[in-house]
Amino acid sequence: MTTIDLNQIGTFVRVVDSGTFTAAAAALGLPKSSVSRGVAALEEALGVRLLQRTTRKLNLTEAGRQYFQEVRTALAGLDQANATVADMGSEPRGSVRITAPADFGDGIFSEIISGFMGRYPRIQLDVVLTGRRVNMIEEGFDLAVRAGKLEDSTLVARKVASTALGLYAAPSYLQRRGRPTRFADLAKHDCVLHRSARGVFPWRLTGPRGSELVAVSGAAIADSFEFVRGLVRGGVGIGLLPELGLNDDVATGALVRILPAYALRGGALYVVTPPLRHVPVRVALLRAYLIDELSRRMAGPR
Question: What is the pLDDT of residues 215-268, one digit of tens each?
């Protein structure tokens, strides 16, 4: 039999796991055409059709189903053997793919990552900052930092802190429009609103009288907290912003906390990993470092 390319076998397994050539190509970081050619070359080398291709979906042939079960087990054994031997080296090395929210922490995340890379210079990090909720398994991520409710119960999550959002404004805005003294006053002010994947954040905050809701409006709506923060700093209006990362703005006077007794509480920050029997040392090191650093910084003085 012609020598089989292990890369082609791995590509085939990724296609089946992902369900489409497009998703497999995104996970592998390859053009879709390269993934399709790799599977076709494997079928030609084996002399058998592994996949039935239609315009809507892919189906395994009977030969493909049996081959997939056998090679996935074999590749998993190879991956674990490689990881085990690599972890025996004197210095941790290898790559770790991690994702986090696009506007996470106003530089705090980059500071944490810089500290980790200084400690472990042989570990290469592939960092993806995005506002969308990625599929960690299909897209090949080792770690994720996520805020809010976790929707995938199969992931292994470690809660590192509770998060809160507070009300902030620039001194220039307060000079122009005045400072609200009651929660209901916000309805008369210009506000900069944040739109999440579930829609615009409602301004239902917890205060001295429990939960209160106010109908607010403004000239700007954005899907990035960092962009909202920039508009608030520019004096456009009042913003509901994560307390994490605003210490410097408050200390320098760029932003002022208004109605400090009110906040949107109850959110959480997690470090998340896929369910794996063997976690490589490089991934475990970064996970532990993130948990320690995020817990320390979130618990620090506000």
Answer: 898 878 888 788 888 999 999 999 999 887 687 789 899 999 999 999 987 677
Q: For residues 169 and 259, is the Cβ–Cβ distance under 8 A?
A: no
If we measure between CA atoms, which residue out of 205, 159, 171, 200 comes closest to residue 186? 205
Any idea what DSSP says for residue 4? P
- Cα 248–249–254 angle (5° rounding)? 145
Q: What gap in Å lies between CA 286 and CA 118, rounded to an integer? A: 12
Phi, psi torsion values for 257, nearest 5 degrees: -80, 125
Topology adopted by domain 163-266: D-Maltodextrin-Binding Protein; domain 2 (3.40.190)
The CATH number assigned to the domain with range 94-159+268-299 reads 3.40.190.10
One fold for both 6-87 and 94-159+268-299?
A: no
String of DSSP letters for 72-122: HHHHHHHHHHHHHHHHTSSS--EEEEEEE-TT-GGGHHHHHHHHHHHH-TT
Distance, CA of 271 to CA of 159 (rounded, Å)? 7
Output the pLDDT for position 110: 86
CATH architecture of 6-87: Orthogonal Bundle (1.10)
Q: What is the pLDDT of residues 101-120, one digit of tens each?
A: 876 655 678 889 999 999 99
Pair 98, 286: CB distance under 8 Å: yes
Confidence of residue 301 (pLDDT cuts 50, 70, 90): very low
* More confident site: 153 or 50: 50
Find tokens 């760029």 and name the residue.
254
